[in-house]
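User: Hi! I have a protein structure encoded as tokens and I'd like to know what sequence might fold into it. I'm fairly new to this, so please keep things simple.
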């Protein structure tokens, strides 16, 4: 019987063999942990559709941020849930808004943890859309003014990086100009550059209370079939001053991550979003999949596709296992 000179299985024989030739390495340094902050004290609201994730008041969020830092995770991204919402998303740019409070508290107690602030209007508006609304239309340019104001107050509170997620045209340029003019020219922008109108966001909308009160977000978030358009969006954000660009969601858009990696030299992030998290958790609870194995495969796949950074609700679990 003939065998080829090279046998692939020789280098798969033991874990030591496999470790030595492993092509893609997932690291704690790759991870960003998303957190939800609410007003109050001692508040922990478990999110039913996202087991293990909760809305936290600032005092509890600081404790969890310390845990995140102790695990070696370099950064968190904060999403704010205000006590009151209005048509102008006033708490997104309020100097004492919920995210601004959280940033100050975390930077005071865990100064070396990188704090990224999600910058969008949807959590803060009474209509649930990511921009200013007139009638049933989401207006682009008036929304940029509010986003720019929000970026400034978040930076003033101590945010290490701002992350616009609204998908309004021109928002990276408007935010960059506002930050520069306010003395925050060193504050980076992590842009949700290719954010698709996805069905994978459902659990997040439970967590953030940001379900639109009418219509949907398809007029500003990207149409899922479009790859070339995604690259145009990323290129425009880079031209406007984005320091890091992101593809969201990750799992159904690995091809977009790969295309972006091949086209651009910018740092590239991907968001392993709430629906992706919830599916794994639900299947694991049913005993249908091995959660640890599936999570490792998913995150490694995102990294293998080309992402430098991964935003994931699994970050703490993964970090604990990596540190063993």
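Assistant: Happy to help. Inverse folding works backwards from shape to sequence: for each of the 324 positions I chose a residue that suits the local structure. Here it is:
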């Amino acid at each position: 019987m003939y065998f080829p000179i090279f046998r692939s299985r020789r280098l798969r024989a033991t874990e030591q063999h496999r470790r030595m030739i492993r092509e893609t390495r997932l690291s704690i340094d790759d991870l960003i942990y998303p957190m939800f902050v609410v007003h109050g004290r001692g508040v922990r609201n478990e999110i039913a559709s996202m087991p293990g994730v909760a809305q936290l008041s600032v005092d509890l969020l600081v404790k969890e941020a310390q845990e995140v830092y102790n695990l070696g995770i370099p950064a968190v991204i904060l999403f704010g849930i205000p006590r009151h919402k209005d048509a102008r998303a006033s708490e997104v740019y309020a100097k004492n808004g919920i995210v601004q409070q959280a940033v100050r508290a975390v930077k005071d107690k865990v100064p070396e943890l990188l704090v990224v602030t999600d910058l969008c209007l949807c959590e803060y508006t009474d209509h649930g859309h990511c921009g200013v609304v007139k009638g049933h239309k989401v207006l682009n340019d008036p929304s940029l003014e509010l986003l720019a104001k929000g970026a400034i107050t978040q930076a003033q509170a101590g945010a290490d990086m701002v992350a616009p997620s609204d998908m309004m045209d021109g928002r990276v340029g408007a935010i960059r100009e506002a930050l520069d003019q306010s003395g925050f020219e060193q504050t980076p922008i992590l842009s949700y550059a290719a954010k698709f109108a996805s069905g994978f966001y459902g659990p997040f909308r439970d967590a953030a209370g940001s379900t639109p009160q009418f219509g949907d977000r398809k007029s500003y978030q990207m149409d899922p079939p479009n790859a070339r358009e995604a690259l145009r969006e990323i290129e425009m954000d880079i031209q406007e001053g984005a320091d890091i660009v992101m593809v969201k969601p990750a799992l159904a858009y690995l091809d977009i991550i790969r295309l972006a990696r091949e086209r651009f030299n910018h740092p590239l992030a991907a968001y392993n979003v709430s629906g992706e998290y919830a599916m794994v958790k639900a299947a694991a609870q049913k005993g249908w999949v091995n959660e640890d194995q599936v999570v490792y495969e998913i995150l490694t796949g995102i990294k293998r596709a080309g992402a430098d950074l991964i935003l994931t609700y699994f970050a703490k679990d993964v970090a604990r296992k990596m540190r063993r």
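A useful reference point when you look it over: Residues 8-245 form a domain with the TIM Barrel fold (CATH 3.20.20.70). Feel free to ask if any position seems puzzling.
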